Amino acid sequence: MRALWLLPLMGLALAQVGRPVEEFQKALGPLPPGARVEVEAKGGRLLAARYQGPENAPFLARLLEKTTGLEYGEPFLDWYEKNRGALWGKRLTLALGEEFLLELGLGEEVSARVAPREVPEGAFGQDRLLLGEKGPFLRVFSDFQCPFCQRLARDVLPMLKARAARGEVRVSYRHFPLKEIHPEALPAATASECAHRQGAFWPYHDLLMAGKLGDYLGLARALGLEEGAFAQCLKDPSARAPVEADRALALRLGLRGTPTVFAGPYRVPNPFDLGRVLDYLELAR
Question: 81: which of 55, 172, 193, 270 lies 20 to 30 Å off by Cα?
């Protein structure tokens, strides 16, 4: 089985994984003669789609787009035209970006399955930095110096916090400091662990995500934390250990950037779209 990468162009809307199955069936439209499409659903929501039938690259391109909600059609058709002959009679797996997989068998009868990537929830280990007590887990791998992480914390996290308070979701923060390009990411993450020791991780998180990096003791003072203990913690190698453990996990999972968000076992394609995040949380229940 071969693994290849296929990158989308822009985002689509409506029919996609996590949405009600009826939307997908309507958006997909009529099937080619002799073709079958089977839907895998969870709680009435689209999880995956299977195709079995004659070779029809344009329809497969349409299936990709309507399943993922992303514009994979044109890149897929380009790839298919260039590689069809060499791959005829074989089975392979295409990585559709970092969020989806396409299992494809080429021959007189073509088979295909489009599904989100899944990570067994046990692979994430213990959730320590947690908001909420009930509901599916939303695990956010993040970097305090990353501007996109700051955007997520500003634009999406407040609504998720409210849902966590109502027992609808559990938000789990995971450190993924990109220290090669963000010199303050590791010190900020370590300081947040010192705040966690005094029960103030999330208020400290919010200050860091507001761009207040560097004066970590000053932030602790602003929150009324015990300064002496905080200063000692900043010098304690053990405060850095959970940060490095989270980063090592992110690398083992093959994560490439931040923010990366998982709803249960499913990686969320566009975590800046609150509606899509909520769809995936429903899928994860």
Answer: 270
Closest CA to 62 of 92, 91, 32: 32
Q: Give yes or no: residues 93 and 151 share one domain.
A: no
Q: Which one of 55, 87, 116 terminates a domain?
A: 116
* Confidence (pLDDT) at 274: 97
pLDDT, tens digit (0-9, with 9 covering 90-100), for 236-265: 999 999 999 999 999 999 999 999 999 999
Confidence label for 13 from pLDDT (cuts 50, 70 and 90): very low
State whether 254 and 128 are in the same domain: yes
Residue finishing a domain among 89, 116, 143? 116
181, two tokens = 């390009």
Residues contacting residue 283 through CB under 8 Å, at least 6 positions apart:
17, 18, 42, 43, 45, 47, 263, 264, 266
> Cα separation of 64 and 80, whole Å?
13
Asked whether residue 3 carries a pLDDT value surpassing 50, the answer given is no
Full residue range of the structural domain in which residue 63 is found = 3-116
CA distance 158 to 156: 6
Cα separation values, 30 from 25, 41, 47, 246, 272, Å: 9, 20, 20, 46, 32
Same domain, 98 and 219: no
- Backbone torsions φ then ψ of 11, nearest 5 degrees: -85, 150
> Running DSSP on this structure, what letter comes out for residue 32?
P
